[in-house]
Specification:
The protein is built from 6 helices and 5 strands. The longest helix is centred in the N-terminal third of the chain and has 16 residues. A hairpin with a 2-residue loop joins strand 3 and strand 4. With about 190 residues, the chain is of the alpha+beta class. The chain has a single domain, classed as Maf protein, CATH 3.90.950. The chain has a 5-stranded antiparallel beta sheet. The model has no long low-confidence stretch (mean pLDDT about 95).
Length: about 190
């Protein structure tokens, strides 16, 4: 079971032949705790989502992606004005994308945290306006989607590309395989 409403996570899993038998997003409070770092937040949210969605005998996979600039956490922008502020903060700078991935099987919980550094070029006013007009920023941590139009903003990525999309596949597959989930990259039925 995938404890996430993200169509990107579902697509990434499908890309490597993993099809969850159910999608059941966990409804939890995603507010950062006072003084909580992006790294701690991503892992805590993933673990909390997996625990909230746990079912006896089921493999429950959850993830949460957090974008940060320095110690500032950039969530999903509420509106275009906030998205513009986020893009302004990211423009011409490096930022971190941290994803916590948690797997729960019965009472056993395993988790990983993956961090990728992304560098954005300096964005012009026209580029920012066009991106905002596209609406692609909606529902995206940090206000952008690297797999979409924002790919034109990132001349450098140090780490996992799939992490920036929303689910680090190498680490996720290792978690699944380590817990006994049949991971089969050959394309043939497991």
């Amino acid at each position: 079971m995938l404890a996430s409403a993200s169509p990107r996570r579902l697509a990434l899993l499908a890309q490597v032949g993993v099809t969850p038998d159910a999608v059941a997003p966990a409804d939890i409070d995603e507010t950062p705790l006072p003084g909580e770092t992006a790294r701690a937040l991503a892992l805590r949210l993933a673990e909390t989502k997996a625990a909230a969605a746990a079912r006896p005998g089921a493999f429950v996979l959850a993830a949460d992606t957090v974008v940060s600039v320095g110690r500032r956490i950039l969530g999903k922008p509420a509106d275009a004005e906030e998205a513009a502020r986020f893009l302004g903060l990211l423009s011409g700078r490096r930022h971190r994308v941290t994803t916590g991935v948690a797997l729960r099987v019965g009472d056993t919980a395993r988790s990983r945290r993956v961090e990728t550094v992304v560098r954005f070029k300096r964005l012009s006013t026209a580029e920012t306006a066009a991106y905002l007009a596209s609406g692609e920023w909606r529902g995206k941590a940090g206000g952008y989607a690297i797999q979409g139009l924002a790919a034109a903003f990132a001349p450098a990525i140090n780490g996992s590309y799939t992490n920036v999309v929303g689910l680090p596949l190498v680490e996720t597959l290792a978690l699944l395989a380590g817990a006994g989930f049949p991971v089969n990259l050959s394309g043939a039925p497991a």
